[in-house]
């Protein structure tokens, strides 16, 4: 049974929201959790400035949160 235009639009919106949430997860993982873990376990090169971690981690966390909220906003357009 083919989808109606409304159902098709809903599926596209769900796909877009899923993409935004997945990107948010990747940004938080790579930009925040990995550098913090590297700092805790001592895997960072010795010449790495710790300020870079303390500045980039919150920025990446906030970017991920913003993208997650965009995904929720997109889902608000479902019919």
Radius of gyration: 18 Å
Q: For the residues shown, what is the average pLDDT? A: 91
SSE class = mainly alpha
Helices, by number, come to 2
Helix content: over 70%
| Topology order in helix (H) and strand (E) letters | HH
Sequence stretches where pLDDT stays below 50 over 5 or more residues: none
Q: What is the 3D shape?
A: elongated
**Major β-sheet annotation:** none
Number of strands: 0
Euclidean distance between termini CA atoms = 19 Å
Strand content: under 5%
Tell me the quaternary state.
Answer: single chain
Keywords: Membrane, Transmembrane, Transmembrane helix
Protein name: Amino acid transporter
Transmembrane segments: 16-37, 52-75
């Amino acid at each position: 049974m083919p989808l109606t235009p409304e159902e098709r639009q809903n599926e596209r919106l769900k796909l877009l929201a899923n993409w935004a949430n997945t990107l948010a997860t990747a940004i938080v993982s790579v930009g925040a959790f990995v550098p913090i873990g590297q700092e805790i376990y001592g895997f960072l090169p010795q010449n790495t400035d710790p300020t870079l971690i303390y500045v980039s981690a919150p920025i990446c966390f906030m970017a991920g949160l913003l993208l997650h909220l965009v995904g929720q906003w997109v889902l608000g357009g479902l019919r």
